[in-house]
Design brief:
This is Aminotransferase class V-fold PLP-dependent enzyme. Keywords: Aminotransferase, Transferase. One of its GO terms (molecular function) is transaminase activity. It comes from Pseudonocardia zijingensis. By secondary structure, the chain is an alpha/beta fold. The protein folds into 2 domains: 99 residues, Aspartate Aminotransferase, domain 1; 216 residues, Type I PLP-dependent aspartate aminotransferase-like (Major domain) (Aspartate Aminotransferase, domain 2, 3-Layer(aba) Sandwich), CATH 3.40.640.10. Strands 3-9-8-7-6-4-5 form a 7-stranded mixed sheet, with helices on both faces. The protein has a 3-stranded antiparallel sheet with strand order 10-12-11, covered by helices on one side. The chain has a two-stranded antiparallel ribbon with strand order 1-2. A hairpin with a 2-residue loop joins strand 1 and strand 2. Helix 1 runs antiparallel to helix 7, helix 3 runs parallel beside helix 4 and helix 8 packs parallel to helix 10. It is globular. The two termini are 30 Å apart.
Length: 340
């Protein structure tokens, strides 16, 4: 059991795979286990889970720097991005990064029959070219290799009328950056936010259209009074985009997100990036300011696995991720595996 930032983590030595699956705190894991035990014994009551949904929503809002009334919840990033894609006018022009994670790009590509075009450019060109497009959809930190997008360039383009959707799945929880200016910020919970898989959130600005194509009872203005029949009366805020929640996922997220939001963001950033840059230095690589490191050496993944280091294979490289429960001992183990 490791202690980090006031929480306990039952994380194994050499676990450097948060970019794939984050390890929950003991508190979050115990909360989910208790909820499942209540389910098994018939103690759970549907209305009681609303409290957990709202705690998690508030935690996400605090991490992004917005009010909870701006945050919608759903099952996955692609489902939430799809609400924005469905609302684009016919013929809209969308800019994305080449090699971007498909949950960000495919919802827009699926609108091709309405004349929506999606243009891929190198990540370094996303900021400079953003003003040429109606909307930019891009990850703050690239899943494959940890590269950061030019947030300043995107913010400037937004000032000239371009809408900006940011996927913060690989950044929120460790990156100390202001994202509150974006038109939409979306993130899945099961990586750096240390929540169960099956829940995601999207903060939506007042100027960005999003269509509640999966509207159901949970999006109602008075959800428990509107579970049958018409007319449809949706919530007046971002909750109108909600879909029915995976209860036990929100139980864990209701512990994880408020805790993460209450940490010193600068200290978390320094810890995570410091470990990653220490690892990079040991391999003779320049610092990159990212908690994700991509290693292209032949056989890197196999050598890491043989040494008990858990990483991921992405885009032909071994991907390592350093979060708040990792230590210099994890860095040393990975370096021992990769250096003579």
């Amino acid at each position: 059991m490791r202690q980090s930032f006031g929480e306990r983590f039952d994380v194994p030595d050499g676990y450097l795979n948060t970019a794939s699956i984050g390890i929950p705190s003991a508190s979050a894991g115990e909360a989910v286990a208790a909820a499942v035990a209540g389910w098994r014994s018939g103690a759970g009551r549907a209305g009681e889970y609303d409290e957990y949904v709202e705690r998690a929503r508030a935690g996400f809002a605090a991490l992004v720097g917005l009010g909870a009334d701006r945050v919608a919840t759903g099952p996955a990033v692609s489902a939430l991005v799809g609400l924005v894609a469905a609302a684009l006018p016919a013929g809209a022009r969308v800019l994305v990064a080449g090699g971007e994670f498909t949950s960000v790009t495919w919802p827009f590509a699926a609108q091709a029959d309405r004349g929506v075009t999606v243009t891929e450019v190198d990540l370094a060109q996303v900021g400079p070219r953003a003003a040429e497009f109606d909307l930019v959809a891009v990850s703050v930190v690239q899943s494959a290799d940890g590269r950061l997008v030019d947030l300043d360039g995107l913010r400037a383009a937004r000032g000239s009328g371009t809408r900006v959707l940011l996927d913060a799945t690989q950044s929120l929880g460790w990156l100390d950056a202001d994202l509150s200016w974006a038109d939409a910020v979306v993130a899945a919970g099961y990586k750096w936010l240390l929540s169960p898989r099956g829940v995601a959130w999207m903060a939506v600005g007042p100027e960005l259209a999003a269509t509640p194509v999966a509207a159901g009872w949970f999006a109602g203005a008075d959800r428990w009074a509107q579970i049958y029949g018409l007319p449809m009366t949706l919530a007046p805020d971002a909750r109108r985009l909600d879909t029915s929640p995976a209860w036990y996922c929100h139980v864990g997220a209701a512990v994880a997100l408020p805790w993460l939001a209450g940490l010193d963001r600068s200290a978390v950033h320094t810890h995570c990036v410091g470990l990653a840059d220490s690892f990079r230095a040991g391999l003779g690589m320049e610092p990159a300011g990212s908690a994700i490191v991509s290693v292209t050496r032949d056989g890197a993944g196999e050598r890491l696995a043989a040494a008990g280091v858990v990483s991921a294979a992405r885009a032909g490289a071994a991907r390592l991720a350093f979060h708040l429960y990792n230590t210099e001992a994890d860095v040393a183990r990975a370096l021992d595996a990769l250096t003579p």
